[in-house]
Amino acid sequence: MSEMKIPEAFKIKPLNSHSYLVNGAIKQWSGQMTKVYSVIGSEDSLGNFGPTLLGSVPDMGEETAIEAVNAANEAYNRGKGNWPTMSVTDRLKCMEIFVEKMKTHRETVVKLLMWEICKNKTDSYKEFDRTIDYINNTIEAYKNIDRKASKFETQDGVLAHIRRGPIGVVLCLGPYNYPLNETFCLLVPAIIMGNTAVFKPAKHGVLLITPLLEAFQESFPPGVVNIVFGRGRSIAAPIMKTGIIDVLALIGHSSSAVSLQDLHPNKNRLRLVLGLEAKNPAIVLPDADLNHTVAECISGALSFNGQRCTALKVIYVHESIISEFNELFSKAVDNLVFGMPWEDTFLTPLPETSKPAYIQELINDAVSHGAKVINKRGGELTDNYSYPAVLYPVNDKMRLFHEEQFGPIIPIIPYNDIDMPLNDMAESNYGQQVSLFGENIENLGPLIDALANLVCRVNLNSACQRGPDVYPFAGRKNSAVGTLSVYDALRSFSIRTFVAAKDSAKNKEIIKNLLKSDASNFMTTEYLL
Ligand code: G3H
After folding, report:
1. 507 C-alpha vs ligand 1 centroid, how far in Å?
2. What's the sign of the alpha-carbon dihedral 239, 245, 249, 250?
């Protein structure tokens, strides 16, 4: 680990947070703590250089997990709770208060993003700001949903007032690559719809949640949001076993999602909202604009070092242009600059200590099956980094062909017949997105038709990505369950439920009186302004 000078503005003091939020109280944990280190090195107080100690968080177990899920369950109170029965206007007010409080923690959260997960400065700010926008857009989207429901319908002599209602208690688990944004993209729509939640932050990117505990506590009624810390198997597993959970909201790996579902005693009760792994391919057609394609593939494959579920994880290139593509692409990869997050370089350290060794394993395995590292710097190792390696030609005997690498290594596969990438995609267990590069519409047209049935987003001459967040973010097969977007997430965390009445004079009278009074928050035709 090499020493470097950390600019004053980015120096960090250890943050030892004993706090957790259960049933509206910020409690102090007196049990075991887990130390949080950054893979970025610095000198400690004794002058020794090594991984930087960022602080510590509680290492909780079953008892606290159950306390948290019971609090969420009581706040939901079988649908009778204050929160699930509250008017939409009042729930939105709580969220508006929260977002204002959250904004005041921007600098602290961004600094922790840089240290904990090594995201560069621009992208760390982007993650924070995008989350604020997401919350504001969610508030607006919910108003629209509610406005459309502020009416009665009549069909075959039955009057109906149809709205969307909450589902119950949500367990919310987010990933380390977007520990703030992706987690809040689950948590915010979940609670705004009237559900209550237990939220456990990811292993990396955990300290950055701690400054927000107070904002949650001060903005929402007790038990609506409960935040606990610890390992998945100590917290999430006992919670699932209780059978209290109505929605498992998880962004992560399908193996974790499956093992958590398996613990639930009543699977039909459990709704799933899952964003899982993917192996998004780029398909480069013979007539693609190569300079543009290379630039998009670099950003698609290596933004945040490829640690994105939407990253391009395999590139299929037509044989007629493969030499030119490989040369341009390898050069472009070798020109990327590595540095510390605050230096705002494109490449930054890998937050998982085991990742560089894993990347080396993939390289060795691919090489043993006939691939070569075709860029000069590919696989160069430092303590916390493995320089992006371009592997060519990759085939289905290699682990790199099958595994979601989630890191800086890019497999290139030559093809002659377009059916080859299409068949690989159909065979694969993933189906999130594809990037298609080419210009001839006679070729593109039928390909788009086929690809749209294999994935959920076809990116034309563009890298794969989740945003803009108003667009549907979904996946087929093992890549997702449900659709997320500002609007779709609100649907995913709610269910259509309605009041129906035979169209009689008496019923009409009762309904009129209900609407005039404020006896029901559900039965209202108030138009949200
Ligand atoms: O890890 C998966 C993220 O949803 C990717 O989002 O495409 O905006 O980086 P992004």
Report:
1. 50
2. positive
Mean pLDDT, range 388-398, rounded to an integer: 98
Task: Give the helix/strand (H/E) hosting 386.
Answer: strand 385-386
Sheet holding 33-43, edge to edge: 15-16, 49-58, 33-43
For the segment 37-56, the average pLDDT, to the nearest whole number, is 92
Please state, rounded to an integer, the average pLDDT across all residues of the chain.
97
- The type of residue at 446 is P
- Whole-Å CA distances, 493 to 132, 172, 197, 347, 488: 19, 11, 11, 36, 9
DSSP 79: G
Q: How many other C-beta atoms can be found within 10 angstroms of the C-beta atom of residue 100?
A: 12
Provide the 10 A C-beta neighbour count for residue 145.
18
Residue 273 CB contacts under 8 Å (≥ 6 apart), including other chains: 186, 247, 248, 249, 250, 481, 482, 484, 489, 492, 493
Counting ligand 1 atoms within 8 A of each CB, the residue from 127, 177, 434, 484 with the most, and so the one to mutate, is: 177
Nearest ligand 1 atom to the CA of 464 is: 7
Q: What angle do CA 336, 388, 344 make, to 5 degrees?
A: 40
Which of ligand 1's atoms lies nearest the C-alpha of 304?
Answer: 9
Distance CA 84, CA 66 (A): 21
141 — pLDDT class (breaks 50, 70, 90):
very high
Kindly give the distance from the C-alpha atom of residue 467 to the centroid of ligand 1, in angstroms, as a whole number.
7
DSSP-derived secondary structure for 30-76: -S-EEEEEEEEEEE-TTS-EEEEEEEEEE---HHHHHHHHHHHHHHH
Q: Degrees (nearest 5) of the Cα angle 194, 135, 238? A: 50
Nearest CA-CA partner of 206 in 48, 374, 93, 38: 38
At 347, the pLDDT band (50, 70, 90 cuts) reads: very high
Residue partners of 24: CB distance under 8 A and separation at least 6: 71, 217, 220, 221, 222, 223
The pLDDT value recorded for residue 487 is 97
Output the six-digit token pair for 139.
């508030």
What's residue 43's pLDDT? 86
Phi, psi (rounded to 5 degrees) for 498: -150, 165
| Mean pLDDT, residues 4-19 taken together | 93
Confidence category of residue 47, pLDDT binned at 50, 70, 90: confident
Measured between alpha carbons, how far is 194 from 4 in angstroms, rounded to an integer?
49
Q: Are residues 404 and 313 in contact, defined by beta-carbon separation less than 8 angstroms?
A: yes
Res. 3 pLDDT band, cuts 50 70 90:
low
State in Å: Cα 355 to ligand 1 middle.
19
pLDDT tens digits for 207-217?
Answer: 999 999 999 99
